[in-house]
Amino acid sequence: NGQKLVIHDVETLQTVQTWVCCGPVKDMVWSPDTKYIATTSGNKVQLWSMSDGTWRSTIPDTDDGVDHVMFSPCGRYLLILHEFSLLITIWSLEFATQYFIKNPKGMLFKFSKNEKYLAVIERSECNDWLAIFETKTWKLTNHFKLPTIDAAGFEWCPTSSRICVWDHSFEHRLYVYYLDGTLSFTHEVTNPIVMGLQVVSWSPCGQYLALGTHTHTAYIVNTSNGKVGTEFKIPECVSGTAVQYYREQRGILVGTTISEKLQAQPEHKFEVVSDEVINLKFDEIAVEKKKKSSNTTAKPGKERRPKRYGISSIKWSHDSSHMAVMDASLPLIVTIWNIPTQSLTAVLELTSAVKTFNWHPSLLRLILASGDSSLCMWESDGSWIIQLPTQCSVNVLGTCWSSDGTAITLSSKENYCIGYLE
User: Fold this and answer.
1) CA-CA distance, 44 to 182, in Å (whole number)?
2) Are 212 and 218 in contact (CB under 8 A)?
3) pTM
């Protein structure tokens, strides 16, 4: 019934602790020091201690609903975003005191990388405001009005010295501020064909901002001067002689005789396409004509979700040397770009839509999955298919590397497993 919380040891997978929550668990989060776990069940927030399995606590005054919980970087404060984004409550786990932040704009609140500050975008008087709090005392250090029409998101610089804020999906505008409210630079495109920003990703080194758009283009902005240094546009065709092109192949039976082929498992591998020009097939947005009818009414649950188009995800390698890009119009493909040479390095084409892809935390290694029992791996010298063991019945929809890169969690809708790459 989803009420049981089970803790496993990563290396042995043995059960370390088991708790029963007050209701089905909606959300769960670890404290950064792994000493506590917070769970939300309905309108209740419960705390669990890893050092004392008998200790538990329920956070009071959450009857008005809970949207999200998170720990502060030090692990001694718990932030609760209340339903309808009315308020953020900050609970001290040591002194049972609380602080309040009014008018948060949904989930738009994040800690700086150096863990010293909390930035919150607020919506008040039909305007967006940026509030910055010091995390030791929760004192408001700065609060200023933003020029955005309807701020859609923000990101901290990896050095924690600046914050970039971008506007809603119809305005291609981005503002970068210092913590004192001084504007560092503005990036704006006024071309009516170019709509708003779909993806904003700061490189780990802090020198570049990657901006994904509807036009299948990723703009690379140099944050030292605020100018676009490179535009990476996903091409309509790729030459296998100029770019590493890997195409997933399934169902190839290995064997010379009939009996060998009957006993053999279908081979699953990447084919290197090097002697042809490959046309990338972009999914088009179909515009349906409305039928004139006065008697028809929309049926609940039958509304079609708007189809995404253009760059949908950008992820940087640990050293900022490469960038993996996915376009919603190319669901089977992930492109890999080389930042120093400003060129397309590799294209990975799977047989099913890519569900997840993640870089190794310390190596130039990319892992992809498409919802089956295998992983795809790319490195600079090649690409491989890793078939999960038969006893591991996980159709991989999500991946997450351990902080040291020695293990990777593979999850599906119903179960998960932990893999170790040798």
Assistant:
1) 41
2) yes
3) 0.86
